[in-house]
Amino acid sequence: GNSVTQMEGPVTLSEEAFLTINCTYTATGYPSLFWYVQYPGEGLQLLLKATKADDKGSNKGFEATYRKETTSFHLEKGSVQVSDSAVYFCALSDSRRALTFGSGTRLQVQP
Amino acid sequence: DADVTQTPRNRITKTGKRIMLECSQTKGHDRMYWYRQDPGLGLQLIYYSFDVKDINKGEISDGYSVSRQAQAKFSLSLESAIPNQTALYFCATSEPGAEQFFGPGTRLTVL
Q1: pLDDT tens-digit series, residues B40-77
Q2: A43 to chain B: nearest residue by CA?
Q3: What digits encode the pLDDT tens for the residues A77-98?
Q4: Do A34 and B102 touch (CB under 8 A)?
Q5: CB-based contacts of B30, cutoff 8 Å, min separation 6
Q6: How many CB atoms lie within 10 A of CB A94?
Q7: How far does A69 lie from chain B, in Å, by closest CA?
Q8: Residue A83 carries which DSSP code?
Q9: pLDDT tens-digit readout, A70-79
Q10: Which of B5, B29, B40, B92 fits B100 for a cystine, CB–CB 3.0-4.6 Å?
Q11: Residues B42, B44: Cα–Cα separation, whole Å
């Protein structure tokens, strides 16, 4: 079956540092890949997505590239802000199933 | 108005009580989902519905049941609540293979 593996957190960075959160997946076929963000006390919001190999999703300074050869979808941001502190979830979907989520990575950005 | 709404937002109940959580959506999506989130963990799929007549069990369906009353409404029931069902519950909707849109969540406490 499908599975998603994320790096464990928490990840603690200083403001303006570079962020990478690793995500790898196992799936049959050609899934779509997503990053969701959950701010404290809120539900999940879609951050970015990619629907086919080599696609790059981007939003709010975050980027992730769909790498089929390494089955990865790592999240990056060049300069994090305190307001980016949240839990980030990697997920995949194919048309036959619901989303499969990773366990989430908590990011803490310090001023 | 929010596209995906959940009621109630918070609920405290006692062991053995029957509880219903409701979800409504105005996005016109056929697919709806119920997830559970425990502290520090990712989301686990309870049930999902690809249309009004198609309901499927997820990873952790034991102790839960659902009803898809209409395209826009998907309810989750706990027939006899127990303390380890204390969690955050999220409803979501989507088109096939596309991103999911989440409700704000229901915080359920079972004493």
Answers
A1: 677 889 999 999 999 999 989 999 999 999 999 999 99
A2: B104
A3: 999 999 999 999 999 987 666 7
A4: no
A5: B50, B51, B71, B95, B96
A6: 17
A7: 21
A8: G
A9: 999 999 999 9
A10: B92
A11: 7
